[in-house]
Amino acid sequence: MLAVGIVTEVFGPHGKDVPGFDFALCADRPGPVPTDLGVPLAIAHGLDRLAAADLVIALPGAGFRTPPARAVLDALSAAYEGGALVAAHCVGTFALAAAGLLDGRRATTHWRFAELLAHRHPEVVVESDALYIDEGRIITGAGAAAGFDLCLHLLRREYGAAMANTVARDVVLPSHRDGGQAQYLAAPVPEDCQDERLSEVLGWARAHLHEPLPVAELARRAVMSKRSFARRFTAATGTTPHAWLRNLRLSSAEELLETTDLPVEEIARRVGYGSAAVLREQFVRRRGVPPRSYRRAFTSAP
Fold first, then answer.
1. How far is CA 59 from CA 4, 119, 144, 196, 301, in A?
2. Burial of 144 (0-12, 13-18, 19+ CB in 10 A)
3. What is the pLDDT of residue 288?
4. Which end of the chain has fewer CB atoms within 10 angstroms, the N or the C?
5. What is the torsion angle, in degrees rounded to the nearest 10, for the CA atoms of residue 88, residue 90, residue 91 and residue 97?
6. Could you tell me the CA-to-CA distances from 53 to 75, 86, 205 in Å, in that order?
7. In 121-172, alpha helices (H)
8. What residues contact 251, with CB distance under 8 A and at least 6 apart?
9. Per-position DSSP letters for 21-49, written without gaps between them
């Protein structure tokens, strides 16, 4: 039910700023489907609905150790062959593997079941630490709430950062998380007073993105040494302060490129890069295209 909630929350209605998606839940046998909460879901559509889909997401289920019915595997393969994006997260990835769609590709799943996936499907390159892996028209995500990461990535990829940010704000989530599953293997993020200070510092950094923001300044505001700050930052976010700031700057640049007519030079200044050349270098390295090409792609998109 968590997975159903995630996809319906992301692709459901979000007001006039987000296009309406033609969303449907399908099963090989329409009708009541049992769930892990004991409340059955009434599924109205059969597998024939997949033939017209632009995006098919295979949701995780308790019976993932048994391959889906042949009709399900054939429908997934046919959807992919017909041009649809095909995605899965958590143990839903096992269905894509059983359909042969992951052969020779990188994929991820819940870290607890990554070894099982690799054992059952040695032809799949399993990367157990990723939150999601984008292989073009095949996208897989990690377990549980990482379904949000996968769905928001799809929105960002197809419609741009502004759209993904709008939906993320609506569901009160970050539009992008750094780090991988390794940050979730041990204890959850501690909630003592120092982490509250850390949260305040991160909020301050977002509001002062146009400034240099050296780690020494962030540590000073958190009333910590640089070493303690870096250690607690990584424990809380799964990434380093430098990587977190870099991604924040690039995400902010993406949104400004999509939603404003500001010159690239001004955008570079607003997100904390010294010049348009520096922004371009980082954008090409991390996003694969220069800022102006990114702007053209998303300002001309539907």
1. 7, 21, 11, 35, 28
2. middle
3. 80
4. C
5. 40
6. 11, 10, 41
7. 146-159, 161-170
8. 161, 165, 175, 176
9. P----B-SS-EEE--TTSPPEEE-B-GGG
Judge contact between 257 and 295, C-beta under 8 A.
Answer: yes
Task: pLDDT band for 30, please (50, 70, 90 cuts).
Answer: very high
> Which residue in the block uniquely carries the two structure tokens 């870290």?
111
Residue 178: per-residue pLDDT: 59
Q: How far apart are CA 251 and CA 147, in angstroms?
A: 20
Higher-pLDDT residue of 226, 188: 226
pLDDT band at 31 (very low <50, low <70, confident <90, very high): very high
Say whether 146 sits in a helix, a strand or coil.
helix
Helix/strand/coil percent split, the chain, to 5 = 50, 10, 40
Q: Which amino acid is at 122?
A: P
Query: With 0-12 CB in 10 A as exposed, 13-18 as middle and 19+ as buried, what is 173?
Result: middle
Give me the pLDDT at residue 8, please.
92
Alpha-carbon dihedral of residues 27, 29, 33, 36, nearest 10 degrees? -60
Whole-number Cα distances in Å, 181 to 14, 85, 105: 29, 24, 19
pLDDT (tens digit per residue) in 130-180: 889 999 999 999 998 899 999 999 998 888 888 888 888 888 877 666 555
pTM: 0.69
Whether residue 62 is predicted with pLDDT greater than 70 in this model: the reply is yes
